[in-house]
Amino acid sequence: MTRTFLLLSLAALAVAGCAEREQTASGIKSDTAPFSGTNKQPPFTAVGWKPGDRANWEQQLKTRTVNGQNDYVKVP
Fold this sequence. Notes:
Elements: H1 2-17, H2 54-68, H3 71-74
């Protein structure tokens, strides 16, 4: 009796472990534009960037992409 109960319990746990939970797209919800900033001082913001300046924000992203994330620039 206990052996049957144990086998049934293990089978139930194995089947329950295979179930997939529902996945929904929740993401980050923000009311502000990304270039509005966080009102934090450097080291959390780029030096020379002022919160709210969209053109400067886009330029900072381009500079960071070219200098920091472009592996072709790093190759000697």
